[in-house]
Amino acid sequence: MNIDRFDLNLLVYLDVLLRERNVTKAANILGISQPAMSNGLRRLRDLLEDPLLVRTSEGMTPTERAENLQPVVRDALSRLEKALQPQTEFDAITSDRVFRIMASDYAESTLIPQLLKEMREIAPNATLDIMTPSDVSFLDVEQGKVDMVINRFDSIPQSFHQKDVWMDSFSCLVSVNNPIIDDFNLDTYLESNHVWVSKTGWGVGVGIDPDDVQRLGWVDEALDRIGKKRRIRVFTRHYQAAMLLAERKDLVVTIPTRAANLLVNNPNIVIKAPPFDIPPIKLKMAWSPLLQHNPGHQWFRRLIVEVAEKVS
User: What is the CATH number of domain 98-167+282-308?
Assistant: First the structure.
């Protein structure tokens, strides 16, 4: 039988009839007239080509077909009723949900540790699965396989929801043993060797061309605007690696300030303001429209925003 011919309301009638085995009682439970219930039973018999309930000395007795249908119909209606119920508020303290995040190394170094700390306190059974930009495609996010992407994006599909996490300036990390530490200016900056670090967007990365200013990013574009170019000797996609290299006396590392501030208590490094203007960068989070109204995801988005306000 084609399901298109079947009035799904009849499943409700059938469920109650098979449970009560009495047309009058079934009609009262459903709040309809006895003739309406009798008409429903007649339609069910015609569609299923089976009497379903037959009168015996023990009253109305279900046929073999009806007995086989009863648990299937009950289960189907139970699932449907559950699915149609209003979504309950997310209970962080009891949830064992896995939240999957694609985060840039910059976001993973600055935002994620504080986010994890907060989650351990208010959602102790939840799990963070942190993925790299190379692990994730636009399609993964669109299909809701990844809860959140946190990065600096040149472009995001229009269907995605997005929100700014923060704006960040730039700072320079210089070893206390670097001879330019007491005379840190544009000239000494340009005479130094530099570490380049960045990984934006997503997808598999490719090698860097030192002469491709547009692909080098914000720092080098800012220098290019004033007709200058720095001498890059190390290219890395990992902020932690760049920050370790900053302890070398012959290297200067220019990175977003929130990442630089992770080393504020490192006695081997001094944090300096860049000797030229670099426009601030914007860290964003983006997610699939399929997750927009999910209570757990709404909670997670609010938490990220609250945590971001605490990271300086």
Answer: 3.40.190.10
**Phi (first) and psi of residue 39, to 5 degrees:** -65, -40
Query: Which residues belong to CATH 1.10.10.10 in the chain?
Result: 3-84
- Assign 1 a pLDDT band (cuts: 50, 70, 90): low
Q: Indicate left, alpha or beta for 275 from its phi (over 0: left) and psi (-120 to 50: alpha).
A: alpha
Closest listed residue to residue 21, CA positions, set 55, 57, 64, 65: 55
Give the DSSP letter of residue 54: E
pTM as predicted: 0.69
User: Taking the domain 170-279, which CATH number applies?
Assistant: 3.40.190.10
Length of the chain: 312
Q: Whole-angstrom Cα distance, residue 136 to residue 142?
A: 11
What pLDDT, in 10s, does the model give residues 190-242?
999 999 987 554 444 445 555 555 567 889 999 999 999 999 999 998 899 99
Pairing relationship of beta strands 98-103 and 127-131 according to DSSP bridges: parallel
CATH for 3-84, options being 3.60.20.10, 1.10.10.10, 3.40.50.2000, 1.10.540.10: 1.10.10.10
What is the DSSP track for 236-256? Answer: ES-HHHHHHHTTSTTEEEEEE
- 3-state SS string over 273-302? CCCCCCCCEEEEEEECHHHCCCHHHHHHHH
- List pLDDT tens digits, range 12-53: 899 889 888 999 988 888 889 999 999 999 999 988 899 999
Domain boundaries for CATH 3.40.190.10 within the chain: 98-167+282-308, 170-279
